[in-house]
Structures are given as structure tokens and as C-alpha cells.
Design a protein that fits this description.
Length: about 300
Amino acid sequence: KKGFSSPLAMAPVKNQKKNPFLAMTAGCIAGGVEATAVWPMEFIKTQLQLQARTKGVMLPYNGMVEGLVYTVRSTGFFSLYRGLTPTLLGSIPKAGIRFGLNSVIKDNLRDKDGKLTVGKNFLAGLGAGISEAFLIVAPVETVKTKCIELDMGFANGFTYILRNEGMGGIYQGAFATALKQGSNQGLRFMWFNEYKRIVTNDGEKKLTPLMGLFGGMSAGCFSTLGNNPFDVVKTRMQGIKAAQYSSTWDCFVQILTKEGIGSFYAGVLPRLGRVVPGQGIIFMSFESIQQFLEDNFSIFQLR
């Protein structure tokens, strides 16, 4: 029968409105799994982006593998997880807000047949990304970035920011974060939803976990290549040397004129190393967890 599927099948494109708390809960769980699994790649990516590529500056490493080896040898394996605590605390509600709001916005953008265009999928992801940026990502990413740059744990880093910059320091680079996160999720959800529509023939076939994994990985690759310049600027605006930039635009200009256009893709390989498997994990987990919750808990069923 059309409209029904196995537990791991995706819902059909038409009439697929769901309880908004279902997507939010599934997103929270999937977000925690994804963040823990790929954190070392995020750590190295942030380190590379914080290093200004100027003449006369010798970097301890220049790539992902070098960075992993250097960090383990110099400060130990567990130092790769420095800064994970604030990120993990933020990843759970962040992913919940992202998937929950994306679901709500999509439901409100559907036409009378329940369909969504590619552009509407992008807008739904954009809105969810901007919302999560201001609510969760900006403060968490700022603390994370400064903890890594200062080589401090979460508690000491948070105290340092409050003592030296006040509460305003927690939201440093919020606009740049919104640009990065909004474009990120817009591109990501646009790609994945269109991919899912094609491979499931508008919901007539089930999306297997393996297909979900590949769809998430390809969405992660697409979004990373599309918005890495925003990620570099966001990282610089949240670092302890952010005062050298008068605005987000000034940061763009200084990087371009002093370091060259290539610097906008600093850290892109380790970022791909983190984002591609991470998005595969989170999209695959989200789809499976969402279906499991809907099938087994009446509280998540739309009435």
C-alpha cells in the first residue's frame, strides 16, 4: 500500500507532516552521537584555521594527519578531545533545534499537494541554521574556539572569557556564525531532501540506513565546499585575536588582502574529514531514530 513502509523506510513526500517534537527528539539523540564520533577532526580543523598564514610564521603542522600525530605526541591522545565538553553540551539541543525547526518550516512551506521545491528546502534549512546559530552555536563555538586556542579546559576557558570580556565575549562573532550556520544547513538540507526524493522515488521506496549514510555524507561534502569561507571567518571572529577585526566584513577583507583567497579554504580537508562522516552519521541516525520513536511511542505520533 502506498504511504506505508517498513520501520527504516522514509515517509512519502506527500502528507508527511509529523509531530514537531518527534524531529526535535530524534535530532537531539543523533546530535550527541555525531559530535562525539568526529570531534578529533573538528579539533584539528579549528587549530589550522586559527593559524594566520603569514610570512615568517612556522606552523607546527599543515594538515589533518600531521595535526593528529603532532597533537598526540606533544600533549597526549585525550588532548584531541579538548573543547568537546561545551560542544557536546551544545550539540544535543543544537541538533534538536535544527531538525525540529527544519521540520516545522518545511510543513509551513509545502504547497497544497504537500510538495517542496529545492528553493523551499534551502529556505527551511537556512531558517533552522540561523535559529540554531543564535540560540546555541554562537556561544558554544566561541567557548570551544577559545578553549582550544588558549589550551584550557572548559571551566577555565569559560572563566577566562567572563573575567576578561564579560558576557559579551560569549557571543563574539555571532553574525559570522549565523552566516556560516545558515548557509551550511540551507545547502545541507536542500541536498539531502532532494537526494532522498530521487532515491526513494518520492517516498515509494524505502531509504535504507546505507542510503541515508551516503546521502548525509554527500550533503556534508556539498555544504562544506560551498561555505568554508564563512567557517574560516567565523573561527577568526571568535578567536582571542578577534579585536584586530572591526567587523565581519573587515575580517573577510583582511584575510583576502593579507593572506590570499586560498586562506578561505584553510582547514577544508580536516573539516571534510569531520563533516562528511559526521553528516552521514547524523542523517542516518536521525532518520532511523525518528522512525523508531514514531513506531514505538504514541506521544510522538501526530494526532
